[in-house]
Amino acid sequence: MEHTTDETTKAQEQRGEEWIRAFHEGLETAAEWCDQIAQEESRMLIAQRCASTIRKQIPDALLAQREGEDDGGNQNL
Fold it and tell me: For the whole model, what pTM was predicted?
């Protein structure tokens, strides 16, 4: 059976529309992944700020002692 020019054109248009729809779905998936990464990064930033704020409350002498322990220094508190 031969396809007419109109049938061929309609089939090509339909395939093009399907491809565009699939492409847009792929873009949406990528956007969702980016949102998820942004949320994880945001949580990490919040945690880092929280840790920084807490460390600011620790006396410098205690921090220096802890850093010495991390370097293989005195392990006793």
Answer: 0.50
CA distance 63 to 52: 12
Alpha helices in the chain (DSSP H): 5-56, 60-70
Per DSSP, the three-state class of 5 is helix
Name the phi and psi angles at 59, rounded to 5. -60, 145
pLDDT score recorded for residue 55: 81
Residue indicated by tokens 């994880």: 40
Query: Domains in the chain: how many in total?
Result: 1
For 76, phi and psi rounded to 5 degrees?
Answer: -90, 140
Cα within 13 Å of Cα(64), Cβ side: 3
In a domain, 46, yes or no: yes
Greater model confidence, 69 or 30: 30
Domain that holds residue 51: 38-70
